[in-house]
Design brief:
This protein has 42 residues and is mainly alpha-helical. The chain is built from 1 helix and no strands.
């Protein structure tokens, strides 16, 4: 049981580090995509 907790913790740590390093760029991309979708047709 402890081994699974260690593996899950390591996976969560890697995922959190990835989100921290890429989070700002992901937010920027999301904002740009949202703005493009909400532009009025014209």
């Amino acid at each position: 049981m402890a081994e699974y907790a260690i593996v899950a913790g390591a996976f969560a740590l890697v995922l959190a580090m990835g989100l921290v390093t890429r989070g700002e760029m992901l937010l920027f991309d999301y904002t740009n995509a949202r703005d493009l979708l909400l532009l009025p047709a014209g």
